[in-house]
Amino acid sequence: MLVVLFTVQAVAQTTPAKEFTVSIAEPSIVLAPGETKTIDVFVNRSVKYRKAKIKLYIDNKLPNGVTASFERAADSSQADKLILSAKNDAGNYNGTLILKASSARLTKGTMFNLTVGGGNNLSDGR
Question: For the chain, is the Cβ count within 10 Å smaller at the N or the C terminus?
Fold first, then answer.
């Protein structure tokens, strides 16, 4: 199994006046069958949300053979990690997924494109 890890430097973000925002370091991710990638996820919190527990998840159904998990940062000033893995027999796929961040009162999301495999037989994720 091939494992590939990427490190992306956090870009300075303005603290929101209220609530929080969520963004992903790579809005377009390409996975080969058998590959694993780690992508930075940024939850930028206002002062009121600094201590709020925020759950991260993928809102869509993942393509067959692909799994997603999250590694939470030690504190809210650091990037969380989204870990995407494609099994060796994962089918071709190309579609838009939604990464969501949810607190007890509020949910925010951001979209990203995922391509698994390649070639002419890509699913459109529908």
Answer: C
Whole-number Å distance between alpha carbons of 1 and 6: 16
**With 0-12 CB in 10 A as exposed, 13-18 as middle and 19+ as buried, what is 43?**
buried
Q: CA 114, 117, 122: angle at the middle one, nearest 5?
A: 75
Distance separating alpha carbons of residues 126 and 115, to the nearest angstrom: 13
pLDDT tens-digit readout, 79-110: 999 999 999 999 999 999 999 999 988 999 99
Q: Structural domain of residue 103, as residue ranges?
A: 20-116
- Which pair of structure tokens corresponds to residue 71? 């590694």
CA 21 to CA 65: how far, in whole Å?
30
Which amino acid is present at 79?
A: A
- Collapsing DSSP to helix, strand or coil, 57 comes out as strand
State the pairing for strand pair 66-71/80-86: antiparallel
* pTM for the whole structure: 0.79
Instruction: Identify the CA nearest to 60 among candidates 5, 14, 20, 114.
Output: 114
**Overall domain count for the chain:** 1
The CATH number assigned to the domain holding 68 equals: 2.60.40.10
